[in-house]
Amino acid sequence: MNRPGVATACAAMLRRDLTLAWRRRGDIAMPVLYALIVTMLFPFALGPEDTLLQRIAGGVVLVTVLLAMLLALDAMFSSDIEDGSLEQLVLAPQPLALMLGMKILAHWLTTALPLIVIAPLLAAMLHLPGAVIPVLLLALLLATPLLSLLGAVLVALTAGTRRSGMLLALMLLPLCMPAVIFAAGAVAAAQQGLPWLAPIAWLAAALVLAVVLAPLACAAALRIALDA
Amino acid sequence: MTAANTAVPLLEARALSFLRQDEPVFAPLDFQLHAGELALVEGDNGSGKTTLLRILAGLLHVGEGELHWRGEPMQRDTCTGEILFLGHQLGLKADLSPRENLRIAAGLFGCRDGIGVAMVLDRIGLRGYEDEPVRRLSAGQKKRAALARLLLLPATLWLLDEPYANLDRIGIALVNQLLETHTAAGGAALVTSHGAVSFHGGEPRHIRMHA
Q1: Mean pLDDT of successive 10-residue segments in chain A (228 residues)?
Q2: Quick check: B90 and A226 CB within 8 A?
Q3: Among residues B90, B67, B69, B93, which one has the least CA distance to residue B80?
């Protein structure tokens, strides 16, 4: 018999989750449309005043992307628990944390990346100056994986509970505050022509920490969820 | 058989029980399972058959008593990849085809020498349905798609929870044949079943469970 290496197993997991997402590509469009509509509501609610919209643009895009990601987060492990795939994954002779890391990566690729792609459009709708958009994208590239990782831990913790969607939002949103503060801080600093690297560096540091710890926490939480 | 019995048992349970809210789910169990043996777990509904299999697979923690794997206390990393568990939930993704599902399983668990996904699907009776999404298969065909893992993946101990459910007569014969080949090759299996089970070779060991 031949045992697959860790790289083979990682590739299998990633391909599996991306194929599944592709089979249900309507679900990928959902958060994107949601973010588009929410951003569109702001000029209607606040009036089409350029200076006001410009000032809030960075924050609005960040919070909208965060809320849109929250919509899709709930489903990260639920289908795997229902159909028994998670049991098979736990029993596989592979490091569970790494396999879950691949699942989180696939989830980020299918939910956060489309949102980042339309972020320049959202920013333009709110008249964010073109020069600031690269900083916004950089902030999103660091903040969204952080949210995926934090969210994955909470999804794993609430895996056993029924109707965990609302509970998840209530638990995740306070944890997201530092990410939102630093990301919005970087965008605001860039808008005022100030150095914006420090908040970006903080985001990157937090992301490194989360990349290492979150999959381990996920693995532990899911083992407990199955052991009940 | 005598040679196998004197050897260290593959799996040994001593006064094994499982507690749910401090209440034991089943009466303490003692049994040994040697390589090449087949055990039939019997018991009424709710007597803890599935719970027992989940404990042996390592999904549930042992409540009281001891569990030994090849003479050593059973831990998660001592037997990884040697145990194949097939539960009520089949572990198939409904949006993927049987072929894709098996490829994932092979990617995680590895596969036996000289055995390929196409060959296995043919053998298990899913020819013509290899690329159909699992959601469109019948209950029996889904079961067969899950059972195909038994042929593909390398494992010493099979833990099969109701492997005969939803299968037609040919399917049941196929499962019996798989079990026979597996035990003849030095593997062991624990099987739960409600229905009357007749094996081709030898009388299986019986593990009787009481609530």
Answers
A1: 82 94 91 94 89 91 93 87 90 92 95 95 92 94 95 89 80 91 94 92 95 96 87
A2: no
A3: B69
